[in-house]
Every structure is written in C-alpha cells, then in structure tokens.
Structure prediction request, 914 residues.
Amino acid sequence: MNEQVEIELKNLLNSRYSTSESTRGNYARGEDTYDPILSKAVVFPESNEEVSKILKLCNENKIPVIPFGTGTSLEGNVVGNEKGITISLEKMNKILSVNAEDFDCRVQACVTKEQLNEYLREDGIFFPIDPGANAALGGMASTSASGTMAVKYGTMKTVISGLTVVLPNGDIINTGGRTKKTSAGYNLTNLFVGSEGTLGIITEVHLRLSPIPESIMSAVCHFPSLEDAVMTAQQVIQYGVPIARIEMLNADQMGISINYSKLKDIEAVPTLFFEFHGSESSNHENIKIVEELSKDNKGSSFKWAKDLEDRNKLWQARWDVYYSVKALNNNGRVYSTDVCVPISKITECVKFAEEQAKKFGVRAPMVGHMGDGNFHVVLPYDPEQKDIYKKLRAFNGTLIRKALELEGTITGEHGVGLHKKEYLLEQHPDSIPVMKSIKRTLDPNNIMNPGKIFDLN
Amino acid sequence: MNEQVEIELKNLLNSRYSTSESTRGNYARGEDTYDPILSKAVVFPESNEEVSKILKLCNENKIPVIPFGTGTSLEGNVVGNEKGITISLEKMNKILSVNAEDFDCRVQACVTKEQLNEYLREDGIFFPIDPGANAALGGMASTSASGTMAVKYGTMKTVISGLTVVLPNGDIINTGGRTKKTSAGYNLTNLFVGSEGTLGIITEVHLRLSPIPESIMSAVCHFPSLEDAVMTAQQVIQYGVPIARIEMLNADQMGISINYSKLKDIEAVPTLFFEFHGSESSNHENIKIVEELSKDNKGSSFKWAKDLEDRNKLWQARWDVYYSVKALNNNGRVYSTDVCVPISKITECVKFAEEQAKKFGVRAPMVGHMGDGNFHVVLPYDPEQKDIYKKLRAFNGTLIRKALELEGTITGEHGVGLHKKEYLLEQHPDSIPVMKSIKRTLDPNNIMNPGKIFDLN
Prediction:
C-alpha cells in the first residue's frame, strides 16, 4: 500500500482508519483454524458511499480488500491479507426499515440476527435463520448461512429478496427488491449470496420475515445409540412432519454442553432436540407422530421445555456448542466439518464419521441439523500441537469424500473459505471455470478477498 | 448460416434437422403478442452431447440460437431469429431419476409439470410449482416461473437444487446437486434460473418435491367488489394463515371462465379461490380463520370442492384463464401484464389497474396470485386491429410504473423477454451493467437468445 493511498484513506476516515497492531490483530481471522494474518490497516466505513470510495481507491491501486462482519465465520473466510486492508462493517449496524405487514425489512450489513430479532419482537414477527453464532446478516449472506431452523424456514439463499452491493470499481448497485418474487433479469441477489466477499461488499440486506407462531414447543429425546437418534430424524423428515427444528447432539457433545452450560435433567447420551411451530393443536398433532417414531427407535419419553425461559436455556446449550468445545483447551481452537447429504444417506454418513473418528483417533463431538442432512463434527484441538491439525484435516478430507460419494456437498452452510478450495475442485470441476470467469469480470484486479473460495491462477 | 454449418447439422441430426416452413412456423413464437419470426432451421437434439455439438458449431460460426420448450412463454422469450436456429428440446423429455425418500428428482428439460406429477403420484409426492400452462420444466426454470402455489411452496428459484447447462462454447456443466442446501462456491444454479436462455441451454433440472398433503380442501368465495376480495386476500396473508393457494378472478374473468369451462354454481362476480393443504384438523382450523376474514369483507359463504374431480374442475377453470380469454376472438391474442407488489400495496395496485382499464377503454379480465402480491390483467385483442396493441402497451406501461412506484417489480413470474426490456432499465438501472458483463463473459459472441432481456449495445 503506497503512502498516497494511506493519506487518502486517512483523510476520508480520520480515526476510522487504524494501523495499530492491536486493532489489526482483532480483525486478522475469524473463528477458524488459521493463524492470524494482519492486514496493513483496518477501516471502519459508515456508509455505502464511504465503502464505494474505499473500494475505488483500492481497485485503482490493486490493494486487496477483506470484508469483515462479526468474525464468526469458520473456514478462514475473513483471514487478513498482508498487502491489503480489512474493511470492518461494524459501524454499518442500523435497521433501515421494517414492514411488519409485508413481513420484510432492510438492514445494514452488520446488524446481527439477535439485534434484529430483539427489534422485531414487539411486531410479532421474527427473522428465522439461526446459525450458532450471533452473526452479522451481511456475513450470513456472504457465506449462504442457515442453521437450526432451515428445515422449516429456508436459508439465507431463500429469505434474502435484495441486496445493496458495492462493486470493486466503486459502483453501488441494488439487486432484487421488496416483493416476494421477481423475474426481472438475472438473479444477481443469489449470485452475491454465498460469494464470500469475493465479488463485492454486501452493505445492505433485504430480508423476508416470518410471523411468530401461535405456539412453540421444544422437547428433548435421548437414544441408546447415535444411529437410533439419526434414524429417527431421518424418518421424521421422510414422513413429511412440518417440524421447525430437529437437532442432533452425540454423547460426547452432550457431555460437553451439559458441563459448559450447566444443564440439568438431561443426560450425556445421543440426543435429539425438537421444536414445533404452529397452532397449539397442529403442534400436538405433529408431536404425537414424532413421539411415536422416536419410541420405535428406542427413544426416551420427551422432556419438555414449555415456557420461554426453559426453551431459551435449552437452545442456549445448542448455540454454545462451538464455544463449549473451544473451551476444552486453553487457547483451544475448533475445526468444524460441514458436510451435507441427501436425508436418506444421513444415517450412513454420521455412522461413517463416528467410525473414522475412532480410526483417526480424534475426539469427535457432533451436532447436526438433521432436517437438512447437514452435520458438523466439532473437533477440538490445541494449536500448539502441530501434528494434530494434519490429522484433523485428513479426517475431514475422508469425511468430505464420503459425503461426495453419497451425492452430498462439501459444505452445507459454512462456505469454502480457505479450508475447502481443493475439495471444491472435486465437487464442481466443470463449473469452477464459470465461477472464475464471473470473478474476473466483476473483479478484474482480484482485489476482493483474494484466495478465498478458489485460486485464480 | 453458411452451407458448411447446414451440412454439419444435417450430418449430426439427420431428420431431426428441419428447414420446412411449417416446422419453422411452429417454433416461431410462444404465447405472446409478437408476429412469428421463422428461424433458418429447427433442430431436435436428444442428448446433452448433441446440444453441446450444436452450440459449439453455432458459436464458432456466430449463429444465433433460440432454445424452445413448450412455447408457452408470454413475453416473446422464444420468438425466432431470421439468422439463427431454434433448438427444440422436446425430445429431451425423460424423467431421469426420482428419490421419493429424499423428495427430489432429476428431469430432462422438456418434461412438463403434468407429466412429472402423473409419474410421481404413486409415490405420494408431487411437484408443487403450478403456472397456468402445462409448461416444460426447463422453460419454467429459464423464466423463473411460479404460479398458484408459490405462496406455500415457493418458486422455481427455491425448488431447483441443480442444473445441467450447456454453455455457448459447448461445455456441459453441472451446478448444485441433490442436497437441500449447499454453500459450495457461487450459486450458478440461480444465475441460470431466470436467465431466459441468454447464457446457455438448461438441459436437465434437479427439483425438490413435496409430500402430497393428508388433506386438500378447495373453496370459492364471492365478493360484492374486487376491492373486498383483494382486501380479504391481503388480510389472510398478513394474518399469517398457511394457505396453499389464494387466487383472485375479477367479474369479467369469472364470466369468461364460466362460459369457457362450462362451470355451474358459481357467479360472474369478484371471486377468491382458496386451497388448504395439511392435516384435516389444521385445515379446518385455517379455514375457520379465512371464512371469518372473508365474512368481515362481505364475502359469501364458502362453496366447497371436496373430492378430487370437483377440485380439478375448479382449478381447470383457473388454469384455462389464458385460453378462455384467447378464445374471445377468432385468431385472438392475449397481452398479459405481470406486476407484483408488496402485499400491503396489492389492493391499491389492483384498484389502479381497474381504473386505468376504464380510462384506456380496454377490456380487462384479471387473475391474481394474491398470496404473492402478483396479478395479471389478461388483455384480449384482435391482432388485425393494429391500433389496439399500442393502447394495451400504454396501459401496461402505466401499470408497470405504478407497480414500481409501489416498490414492486415489472414481472413476478413471466420474465422480461422482448416485452419489458425498457422497463427493466427503469427497475434495475444500476445492476444491468453487471448483468451485461456476465452475459458478455459467458456468451462473448452473443449467440444465446440475442435481444431477449436486454440489448447488448
């Protein structure tokens, strides 16, 4: 980065341009397995126009740009760049408009899912995409995130109706809009969703919301084996029960969660967490079917969490999975896998993961969004022990290849980042050239989050 | 088209290469308002490889290519090209695989929605996207179609999980896959969905399916005014009732439909058609709410169609809207509008359409997918009367501008085709350059359906 650019950025942003080592260190990686890489500077724009000016300047001077939200991504998506700058969007955290009667809203990129839901509560509506972390909605758009409620409410791909994106050349474009559907030209919205900051910076997100259901009922069910639990989930989906959440935790993860979140009355055995959204009577109807299926697979009777506080406590344990595993080691890190397979293959895939974990000799807490065929092995490790990382990577590679063999995907919701570039080549050998040609067209100087998703050369 | 290309195509396709005037005439337009344009030849490939060879040859010789499915598109999307060839995909009509337990299937581009649903019935699953026409699934993908059940089941954009696409250079690529979700690289699937054959030819479509609901109940409700009907629909959606279909027909369209489909027991007044999918008890619950809301807006009591035959008859009338209007004139044509607005604006927009139809002096049968804020004025005309087309176009322009003013879109589900290029410029002035740059990258010789969606120069 030359001096002239530094001066221009300073003039534009004043104290919102930082080169201090501690600041740069805070924005040097996400919740991933990579060592931090400090960018030359971190900038904190407050408006689309500022983002535009920054990108234009960087593009003219071929300076790499790393967009940064809450830093909760898991695949190295926001690791810094020694020759570039990191753009933190944290000052763009305003809820711009809410149309309760139309179930839609528009937010700046760094509004988090909890901030939004807090704001919406009084209107009787909510935003249903629920990854583990309290992530920024712009970041969730960038990685095509989903989480626990995708089985009922969809993913970022299906709830985003429009975006404001700043392109590398500084152009500010609006895609999509407020309507529930549109066929007006190419679907640029869904091109930028999941592009992990490699095509431009998402600064605003237009979202579809949902009415808060009349009745919400959560329950927990224990199983004698992981296979029984997973098979139950598979059958619930194949039966077509309209369930809002169906999450699996294996015995190891249950033990870790119970300990970390000080849970009572539940056991460290393979477990399914259920949630039902609907009218009271339709919930009871669906619960009956699910209880029956669980019983057939040797499940325990349901333990209920009926009021809001109990429910939140239950789900807190689920949300804390990542942090509970991370806390196992001092300065520990977590290597999370993210394969997703057709629902008929989920039992086989989870079983394979268990067997391979034993074979590789790795500790393998597991959590899964069973309704979508997506699960994570949440591998804890101490980064000081250099040899273990290789082992975890080999385990993940084995699991990924199994998922591909089962007609699955290398990533259900975390994205590719730095972790899975080689596997993306295996999954989409024929369409990567098209991805690259789009990248080259929109970002000819390769300044946008270079080296993420794929290498251009 | 030079002689050498003709010879190569003939050698490749034999009798599946046709230059007869009658064949060329049959593939010269869709169900649109344009005069037919005969391409130089029509070809009928049977495999991805044949499509690839044809495109490669055309690309090398800069010959325009028009992909053609069932020819039911409404916006001039498949009008022929005097210097090009039309590729009919009608011989690619095989259902390739069905995974009932995973609710997904893969079909060739010219499988129609009815053909697929016929095939799936025994498995207790169905494909829920339901436009008026019995369209080809490849064509429905190309225009990002939706129809009567989008309010519950989504649109082509949300039910397609993967595609096989042949690019202009002959490359055959596979996007997406079988899983319910994926974050593996750019979402090329949704880039090709809605691209109206301008980026490549969709030859295979991977679809999400739905379980046939335990109970389906259809009802009809009459209203004293169109405003009352539309307001009821608006309130049903805002109340969050999980309805599967909520269709509006105005008085004129009701009269036309009753006459054309020989319907009994329903009246030529503003009407809502409802359909409820779920368990019997949840349907009864939802019906109660909808009946209450209808009554509050002066609706009649519900007329029920309970068994399959009655239901099909009812919906046949809805499906036949286009043909019933077309049949009003000998050799008549239909000019269908397609605006979509946020649900809170739908009453205002429909009322505006009614007023403007009077002002312009045009006959205005109307039908609407009320749950999505999307409605069509289905304008009948005699193409021999040259002055009327101008009037209809002016009426549509006025309606489109009103929709844009109401934060709506120029097309909810028909696409842009030739009809709405100028309006697309108004809706997406800032993002059209991005669309064009993607087009230029993937189709540098502009052979794919040139002149549709936008003009490149």
Notes: Chain A touches chain B through 83 residues (CB under 8 Å). The mean pLDDT of chain A is 95. The two ends of chain A are 22 Å apart (CA to CA).
